[in-house]
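User: Please predict the structure of the protein below. I'd like the answer in structure-token form so I can feed it into my own downstream comparison script.

Assistant: Understood. Taking the following sequence of 67 residues as input:
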Amino acid sequence: MNGSKEDTAARNECISGLIQKLEFIYPEENCEKLAQSLINAFQGSTPRHSTLVDSQSWDQQDCFVIT
């Protein structure tokens, strides 16, 4: 993605759809943050660990397993 308005809109649409699916599978999680971590994992920009609201730690490997 080169940062264009179209890329941003496509990313937001992807994240929105992913959030809906994750909310069904993981109703107790912060699915917005988890979706962002999953997208970042596919782009290779996920930090080693991401902490969700409940302080549960998710790393890049967790993101790949979820998908």
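That's the full token string. The chain has a mean pLDDT of 72.
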